[in-house]
Design a protein that fits this description.
alpha/beta, 6-stranded parallel beta sheet, 17 helices, 18% strand, binds adenosine-5'-triphosphate, hydrolase, DNA_helicase_UvrD/REP
């Protein structure tokens, strides 16, 4: 089965012929064919009907026409005259149109020396054969050959209706498609070359390596980097399948969930008739996402909210009385009040073009029920991102309700992302070794989605460092040294984070950094938590809870010896540590002032990883 971008369910086909062709391409071609429908290509954003890529055949542009033979009045080398209800119209010759798109592809690819042939007769030329062809979805080859149209359109450059019937065998269909690819020279594209082709043709799959951008690429960057980063095929498929009903993505830590969410927001915003709502649990993540949307001029269209704060806002906006309960009871009553107001119509449903939920694993069933009702039924666009291994609030065990029971139609619309791109192999291996409970495979209650352990995308870096020191004073001294050392090696302060478990540690960290004149911003006070990501060059001091969803090139976690914190759920403590460790993009330093069972395990995990990597 070929891969189609976007998912077929999300394609907005212009004609029934395009729909049929997409289905045949997807079902009848092998997995090594990549097919894009209507994706804008290159800098000018031209939209060929289909582009097909294959490692051994190259690139093919298809122009699809639903023309019937009796509607073609005339055709010459340049144009065709068609009979339509309004009279005669002159349109471009379909093969010329396809060639124009193919030329656009080539000019986008030719800039890249790594896509040129390095030796042989064709040295210096593009290493990718490319061709173009026409698909007539309502005309058979026989019908066509009985006319003189072949004088202006070679039939070997056309796929006809009878060659794309459901009844045509997969092999026959693949042979017909293959025959449309030109074969001027042998072609064997590597995975990296295919990624480079995608990078040039489809700028929206590019990934930025700038920290704090969730991978979102700044298209103003003009120089071509030698090491490019693009979404993987699964991510691209999800990112492109905009607004296609309800969708759930189960993704391991660092698998690009937030990146896909941010991408979707930006693209949905371009066409949205109502605002778009992003809901998350934690303040820091919401703050960062909100800032990113504002940087792109989308502050009005994309509203980023913490769920409970949003409930509060809804009640106030619609003149519904706030609950009078105090403490934790207030929040439960707040949620109940919103549910009741939706039921009574005091709060109108369907206020948002799309609702996107980050950190869905921390949402209670009633939260989902409320969010689902706020999606405009005309778009029905709901995206839920989920990772059981990072559940920190509510029911810490596996989800005990089904998505269907809260109104999410996720059957057959669930995707699993297993690859972790954020962490180096070294960091991820140690985090995994410690999170045995958090990552224990159990079957979830309803959707049949197992708890997923992350696999590394393979990036390499230094081994995590564990320093067990003799006293508190030494620990803070060592913390300062680690940060200063990184700064001396060129790291900006803003690329470093210190993640703490308890507020008392935060006070000590702030004191130590202050005394060493290291600029920092601390999220200890909730009012500063959403300002953590200003442009200032400051070390971030963040609680483990608030670090969820974020990432930093250097992460230091002090006071490991206090974990698991006394009286706390061990599974929660393990998850917290897993979340905190998987925030590190490059380097991870763990500090403790006493050897404990956990520091022992960390030490063993680091040694094990070191040994395994040395043997590999
Ligand atoms: N295909 C890819 N190639 C290279 N880097 C990638 C790719 N996909 C994602 N990344 C990078 O991986 C990092 C993690 O992405 P993101 O924050 O979206 O993950 P996440 O699934 O939301 O993680 P978490 O649940 O741990 O917060 C980002 O720096 C992003 O740029």
């Amino acid at each position: 089965m070929a891969q189609l971008f976007p998912l077929r369910s999300a394609c907005r086909f212009d004609t029934s012929g395009e729909r049929r062709l997409a289905e045949r391409l997807e079902k009848k071609l092998g997995a090594d064919y990549l097919c894009w429908y209507n994706a804008p290509v290159g800098a000018n954003g031209l939209q060929p009907d289909f582009v097909i890529a294959h490692p051994e055949r190259g690139l093919l542009v298809l122009e699809v026409k639903d023309w019937r033979l009796d509607t073609i009045r005339r055709m010459d080398q340049d144009s065709a005259t068609l009979l339509v209800p309004e009279g005669e119209v002159v349109v471009s010759h379909p093969l010329r149109q396809a060639r124009k798109y193919a030329t656009e592809l080539v000019s986008a690819l030719q800039r890249d020396t790594l896509l040129r042939q390095s030796e042989g007769l064709y040295a210096g030329r593009l290493a990718v054969p490319f061709g173009w062809a026409v698909v007539f979805t309502r005309m058979t080859r026989r019908q066509f050959e009985q006319t003189d149209l072949h004088e202006v359109l070679p039939p070997e450059r056309v796929l006809f209706q009878d060659e794309m019937l459901e009844s045509v065998s997969d092999d026959e269909f693949a042979d017909r498609i293959d025959a449309l690819f030109p074969a001027p020279f042998p072609c064997r594209l590597s995975g990296e070359q295919i990624d480079r082709i995608r990078y040039h043709l489809y700028p929206e799959v590019r990934i930025s390596s700038a920290p704090g951008q969730f991978g979102l690429f700044d298209n103003h960057q003009d120089a071509l980097p030698s090491l490019i980063r693009v979404m993987d095929l699964q991510q691209e498929q999800l990112a492109r399948s905009l607004g296609d009903g309800h969708r759930v993505i189960h993704g391991v830590a660092g698998s690009g969930k937030t990146m896909i969410l941010a991408y979707r927001c930006i693209h949905l915003a371009a066409a949205a008739k109502k605002p778009i709502l992003v809901l998350s649990y934690s303040r820091a993540l919401a703050g960062r996402l909100e800032q990113m949307m504002a940087e792109r001029g989308l502050a009005e269209t994309v509203q980023v909210r913490r769920f409970l704060a949003w409930c509060h806002e809804l009640l106030r906006t619609h003149g519904v009385a706030l609950p009078t309960e105090r403490g934790q009871a207030f929040y439960a009553a707040l949620v109940a009040a919103v549910e009741a107001a939706l039921e009574s119509g005091e709060i109108p449903r369907g206020q948002y073009s799309a609702v996107l939920i980050d950190e869905g694993h921390d949402f209670a069933p009633e939260w989902f029920r409320i969010a689902v009702q706020m999606v405009d039924p005309d778009t029905d666009s709901l995206l839920v991102l989920y990772d059981d291994a990072q559940t920190l609030y509510g029911n810490l065990r596996r989800r005990d309700f089904s998505f269907a029971s809260v109104g999410i139609q996720a059957q057959g619309r669930t995707t699993i992302l297993r690859l972790n791109y954020r962490n180096t192999l070294e960091v991820l291996s140690v985090a995994r070794a410690l999170a045995t409970g958090a990552l224990r495979a159990e079957q979830s209650s309803d959707d049949g989605v197992p708890l997923i352990a992350p696999e590394s995308a393979g990036r390499r870096g230094p081994l995590p460092k564990l320093l067990v020191l003799d006293s508190e004073w030494q620990q803070w001294h060592s913390l300062v040294e680690q940060l200063q050392d990184a700064a001396a090696h060129g790291r900006r302060w803003s690329e470093m984070a210190v993640l703490y478990r308890h507020a008392s540690d935060a006070v000590a960290i702030e004191r130590a950094l202050g005394a060493a004149d290291i600029p920092f911003i601390s999220g200890r006070a909730s009012r500063t938590r959403d300002r953590l990501f200003g442009s200032e060059d400051q070390v971030k001091v963040v609680s483990m809870h608030s670090s969820k969803g974020l990432e930093f090139p250097l992460v230091v976690i002090p006071s490991l010896h206090i974990l698991p914190a006394a009286g706390e759920d061990e599974l929660l403590e393990e998850r917290l540590l897993y979340v905190a460790m998987t925030r590190a993009l490059e380097s991870l330093v763990l500090l403790a002032t006493a050897a404990t069972a956990l520091t022992e395990r960390v030490g063993q995990a680091v040694e094990q990883v070191q040994r395994a990597l040395a043997e590999a």
